[in-house]
UniProtKB/TrEMBL annotation:
PANTHER family: DIAMINOPIMELATE DECARBOXYLASE, GROUP IV DECARBOXYLASE
Domain Orn/DAP/Arg decarboxylase 2 N-terminal residue range list: 31-280
Protein name as catalogued: Type III PLP-dependent enzyme
Cofactors required: pyridoxal 5'-phosphate
Keywords: Pyridoxal phosphate
Organism: Paracoccus maritimus
InterPro entries with a match to the protein in the record: Ala_racemase/Decarboxylase_C, De-COase2_N, Orn/DAP/Arg_de-COase, PLP-binding_barrel
Length: 414
């Protein structure tokens, strides 16, 4: 049964009235639809793993717990957050280039599913800690390929990179890791590029992964339990961006994925698609209230209660080379159209959420909504800078709206 489209403006207005602004509003119905779409396109090959770095909100994490099989954590802190949201340690993998001893000890003692080993140093340390804990720890080894196709918003391989073991070193490193007595090599992992909206580039990248997985497993006679594919699936952020057609990606990837699954070495291997923003990004909105407007030398500016401090990514300072507006609308619509700049409350000229945005006439007290804000939101932003109120987080599940705010700062609230 298809659900009726949510009345976004009513939801955002209610959330702002009840919980205040600036706020992030996450709609779980939309996440549910995205999980279904991913399962229907890729379910015959992949199971999903949620990279919680993109949105570690505890209420969202516990909602996801019964809907996504695996979780990827990138710090000891994320591991503890996932556990308190009810995720069992065995369902977690742990990535990250700078894992500290205390983090490794904590997760290994707690029964982590898989450690994603990113260097020989980490493998040796984990081996020692596993011995002390009396465990044989499952690991998957992260490989950094020597090439990433064009079209990824951020790339973690194909050039000097802190992430994973460079493919050039992988054969020798694998031999050493396989020989460590307290680790068990359960598989391989590659995450080399993210935020890609080009189906051909995503499929080509997965093809690179498959080639590497095949060669390394053959060289070491591994029959892996698990191969983890960093999805790279991107989402539309800016006006004019085209959303990915998952069926098109699936159809183009099918020959190589089917061939891999058909090989006896991989007949019992579970393929995992690790992803963050694709699952939750489009299901979240950032809502900020206009505290004043100003006409300045021919430009009209809406000055809002939340800006770059609440939403660094929308201000263009989170990995964007050229600042481009996110999709933005005035909640509740309105008459006419005019160009307006949208700035935040900080005393710096880089605190801008939009330039020349075409909106109906905006006045003091209006709400502005920024789309595609469900990933890399509050925890990726300098929320304490200048001690304005930190963003509220609101979880909307069916008809229920709950305050799911995680970060309390020193800001003075209304
Ligand atoms: C290892 C790893 N896994 C998962 C992700 C999540 O990427 P995305 O949110 O683009 O799906 C990233 C992003 O940087 C990553 O580095």
């Amino acid at each position: 049964m298809t659900r009726p489209e949510p009345d976004i403006d009513r939801i955002l207005t209610d959330a702002a009235d009840r919980f205040g602004t600036p706020s992030y509003v996450y709609l779980t119905d939309l996440v549910e639809d995205r999980i279904s779409a991913l399962e229907s396109a890729f379910g015959r090959w992949f199971r999903l793993s949620y990279a919680m770095k993109c949105n570690p909100n505890p209420a969202l994490l516990s909602w996801l717990r019964s809907r996504v099989p695996f979780i990827d954590v990138s710090s000891g802190g994320e591991f503890l957050l996932a556990q308190s949201a009810g995720w069992e340690a065995e369902r977690a993998s742990f990535t990250g280039p700078a894992k500290r001893e205390i983090e490794l000890r904590t997760v290994i003692q707690a029964g982590l599913g898989e450690l994603v080993v990113e260097s020989l140093r980490e493998a040796r340390l984990a081996d020692r800690i596993a011995a002390e804990a009396g465990r044989r720890q499952d690991v998957v080894i992260r490989i950094a390929p020597d090439r990433v196709p064009k079209g990824f918003g951020d790339q973690m391989a194909g050039r000097p990179s802190p992430f994973g073991i460079d493919i050039e070193e992988a054969e020798a490193a694998l031999a050493e890791i396989i020989a460590l007595p307290n680790l068990r090599v359960a598989g391989l992992h590659i995450y080399s590029g993210t935020q890609c909206l080009k189906p051909a580039a995503i499929v080509e990248n997965w093809g690179i992964f498959i080639g590497i997985f095949r060669d390394l497993c053959a060289a070491h006679d591994l029959r892996p339990d698990r191969l983890i594919f960093g999805s790279g699936l991107g989402i539309p952020y800016h006006p004019g961006d085209q959303a990915l057609n998952l069926d098109e990606v699936a159809a183009a990837a099918a020959p190589e994925l089917d061939a891999l699954k058909a090989e006896p070495r991989f007949s019992d291997t579970e393929l995992v698609l690790e992803l963050g923003r694709y699952l939750v990004g489009p299901a979240g909105y950032f809502v900020t209230r206009v505290t004043s407007t100003k006409d300045s030398r021919g430009a009209r500016i809406a000055i809002c209660d939340g800006g770059m401090n609440g939403h660094l990514a929308a201000s263009g300072h989170f990995g964007m080379v050229l600042r481009r507006n996110y999709v933005i609308h005035r909640v509740g619509g309105g008459e006419g159209e005019e160009k307006i700049d949208i700035s935040g409350p900080l005393c710096t000229s880089i605190d801008k959420l939009g330039t020349n945005v075409v909106l109906p006439r905006v006045e003091e007290g209006d709400l502005i909504a920024i789309h595609a804000s469900g990933a890399y939101g509050p925890t990726s932003s300098p929320v304490n800078f200048i001690s304005h109120p930190t963003p509220r987080e609101v979880l909307v599940t069916g008809g229920q709206m709950t305050d799911a705010t995680r970060i309390e700062g020193a800001g003075l609230r209304d």
